[in-house]
Amino acid sequence: MAVYKDGDKWRVIYRYTNYKGERKQTQKRGFATKREALGWEREVMLKSESKLDMTFASFFEIYEADKKKRVKENTWESKSHVIRTKILPYFGERKIAEIEPKDVIEWQNEMLSYKGENGEVYSPRPT
Q1: How many Cα atoms within 13 Å fall on the side-chain side of residue 74?
Q2: pLDDT (average), residues 102-115
Q3: What is the pTM of this model?
């Protein structure tokens, strides 16, 4: 794991071991600041190690890569829309390990009390 100045931008070179045990190397270029480059490197390391210190948004990327292949396209689009519009705005930048049941209850209550511009609410769930 190394961060280098590449002209006026920053570049990260990241080495990892894949699921077959083979050593691989990848890189990402074009970061405006060293802080951005180090942040990207930290997120990639957390994803590869499957630690709960990753953000919910990072977890969603892993979930999407896995789940998208296993369900029909329309099912995925529905699921993805709900996650992107309802859950990620609330939990996206929070670390998974920091999300507690009280946070989920608070989010649920916020969704239940939602009123649109015309006073409309979300459709009730069929029982």
Answers
A1: 0
A2: 88
A3: 0.57
